[in-house]
Amino acid sequence: MINLLNQTYAYFLDNQNRFWAELGRHLSLSSTALAISxxxxxxxxxxxxxxxxxAQYLITAVGSLRLIPSLAILFLVMxxxxxxxxPAITALTILAMPSILINVYTGLRGVEPAVxxxxxxxxxxxxxxxxxxxxxxxxxxxxxxxxxxxxxxIASATLAAFIGAGGLGIxxxxxxxxxxxxxxxxxxxxxxxxxLISEVVLGFVxxxxxxxx
Length: 213
Description:
Blueprint: H1 2-14, H2 16-50, H3 52-63, H4 70-81, H5 85-109, H6 113-121, H7 126-156, H8 169-178, H9 181-209
Helix pairs in contact: 1-9, 2-3, 2-5, 2-7, 4-5, 5-7, 6-7, 7-9, 8-9
């Protein structure tokens, strides 16, 4: 194993420029998909929390996306969007949406009604109650959803290489094609490290915003 890691490091030294370029592309794909998911799902989650009956259909529809394998989503969007970054970002956005939307909805619905009523009795408008009371109280649950989505997107962005979008998956697919474990590890290890860092950092952020009991 040590010998294999040494070989991987030697391959990295010989291909540093390509590695950093693909790492940047991997982060770009992941961050863009997460940003779009947040822009879409936070307003949708707020709306769903205000319209519980309609929200059941929305949550069920979006939640069903979890049943579709990541690779299948990538190949499903290919006939309509072709290959490259656009279909990869679209597929990763679809993958991230369920966790974010469901947690935004769950977090807001979990706020104690008495707290909201007390804020209304103090003369706060609906917008003020949302921004100053409900969202801050729901934030830990919302961040938990973002953390789950982030880890899933970073890991699944590896598959973007199959549709020509680049990223660290390039090394995984190339290593598999050439039966070269050292090349596969050059892609797999950084993806695992990125996912672990995201999990730890967002877990800390979640705990930071969790009010003491």
